[in-house]
Amino acid sequence: MNGSLTSLPWWGYLGGAIGMLCLTLNIFLFPILGSVQTVIIPMVGQIIMSMIIDNFGLLYAQHSPLTLTKVFGIILIIAGIIITIALPQILAKKRSSISKNNKSKKFIWQIIALLDGFAFATESTINGHVGTVLKSPISSAFLTFLLASVILIIINLIQGNFKNLKYIHSTHMPAWNFLGGIIGSINIFTNALLVPQIGIGLATILGLLGQIIISLVIDHWGLLGSEINKVNKLQISGIFTIILGIVTIELI
């Protein structure tokens, strides 16, 4: 590592733990909130938190004051996310009656999902600062994955989960199922590289836009074993709304 680990603030070592917590939370959120809310609510949380970090220059991030123009751009982006992801499913399904008890439980998990998004943005900012201090985004990604791996190994040792590894060998899965870790490391490296250069706000928004576009591509052609769901005009208009929001924030 080019820089010194001793130069890191204490919170510089939290990136791995926060990232592990966020990914684990997503696993719990999916069966409770469903795919749409599990995607949208953390995305909104990431955008809100990234703008707060930018506005106050938290965690040594670039200071970028929040203006009315930026607020309008953020509203456009959030509207675009809802149009692209939520509206097609809302229009396709009839609203089902939900008991007050279930609504109350869901509300708690929706708050947790929002906090999950806050944590994702915080992790990216931390990793960006670590990359700056160590003068290497690769070193930042390595430190994040190392700490997360140590935590997960300890948890699985305590729970005795390693005895189940034999089932992985006997299960016939396509090779690309094991690429998640590699893709995750590229994502962390990219954030560590971009956040100090363009700020957490823009890095987060562009990253979310990329996620939405690639998910639509996968759905449209049924890639990676997913069902084919053709992209419609509503979703395309949502993408353009997000892009308009980004342009509003950055250029106007």
From TrEMBL:
Keywords: Membrane, Transmembrane, Transmembrane helix. Coiled coil: none annotated. This is Integral membrane protein. The chain crosses the membrane at residues 12-33, 40-61, 67-87, 138-162, 174-194, 200-222, 234-251. It comes from the Bacteria. Pfam families: DMT_YdcZ (PF04657). GO terms for cellular component: plasma membrane.
